[in-house]
UniProtKB/TrEMBL annotation:
It comes from Phyllobacterium endophyticum. The chain crosses the membrane at residues 27-48, 121-139, 160-180, 186-208. InterPro entries: CDP-OH_PTrfase_TM_dom. It comes from the Bacteria. Keywords: Membrane, Transferase, Transmembrane, Transmembrane helix. GO terms for molecular function: transferase activity. This is CDP-diacylglycerol--glycerol-3-phosphate 3-phosphatidyltransferase.
Length: 212
């Protein structure tokens, strides 16, 4: 794939320049896989991860498998953009597939954590704040500003925190049989998402005022 100009609304991801991502995206382009299809696949990985988290009977294997699903969701999020942009497979409805599956995937992964830890309200709140971080970013873009992907709990960091929490929970389940690791992780993601909403809103306000 030739080097292309980065769209202003594209999330900066370091792994995009890695050899494995470049090689895999080139392979997917050759096989005819669509970027939109990869975006939809991310939702299936999220659904599997959420099911393992919420309905896996708190088994260590379920926790670690859920962590793998979280990472596969992120791999899909990486590859769909590479196939669309670098692979030249952009479609008119690509922006829709780029955003909507992400919002669904976040909820499918975060809400079950609340039920698994006995804090369903916190899982729903976490999912709501995660969606709100994206809303603020996209709203800024709708006003003609560069989309703001910053924040202590942007998507990549939310999923990294969830992965670490699930791995830690695997160990805790084997040793103690409790769910503190996952509960603390959910609380941290929720608090971090709230801070991210605030900082993005402040940045958006400053950018709008700077237009005057």
């Amino acid at each position: 794939m030739s080097k292309v100009e980065e769209p202003a609304a594209r999330r900066p991801i370091a792994a995009r320049s890695s050899s494995w991502a470049i090689g895999l995206s080139k392979y997917l382009v050759r096989t005819g896989v669509t970027a939109n299809g990869i975006s939809v696949l991310s939702v299936f990985f999220a659904a599997a991860g959420g099911a393992l988290t919420g309905f896996g009977n708190q088994h260590p294997v379920a926790w670690i498998a859920a962590a793998a699903c979280v990472q596969m969701r992120l791999v899909c999020n990486l590859l769909d953009g590479m196939v669309a942009i670098e692979g030249g497979k952009k479609t008119p409805n690509g922006p829709l597939y780029n955003e909507f599956p992400d919002r669904i995937a976040d909820s499918l992964l975060l809400v079950p954590v609340g039920y698994a830890t006995g804090l369903p309200w916190l899982g729903w709140l976490c999912a709501l704040l995660a969606a709100l971080t994206a809303y603020i970013r996209v709203f800024g873009g709708s006003l003609g500003l560069p989309q703001d992907f910053s924040g202590i709990m942007a998507k990549q960091r939310r999923m990294a925190a969830l992965t670490v929490g699930l791995v830690a929970q695997t160990i805790e389940t084997v040793v103690f049989g409790t769910v503190w690791s996952l509960g603390v992780t959910l609380a941290a993601i929720t608090a971090g998402s709230l801070v991210t909403c605030i900082t993005r809103t402040i940045s958006l306000t400053g950018s709008l005022e700077g237009r005057q």
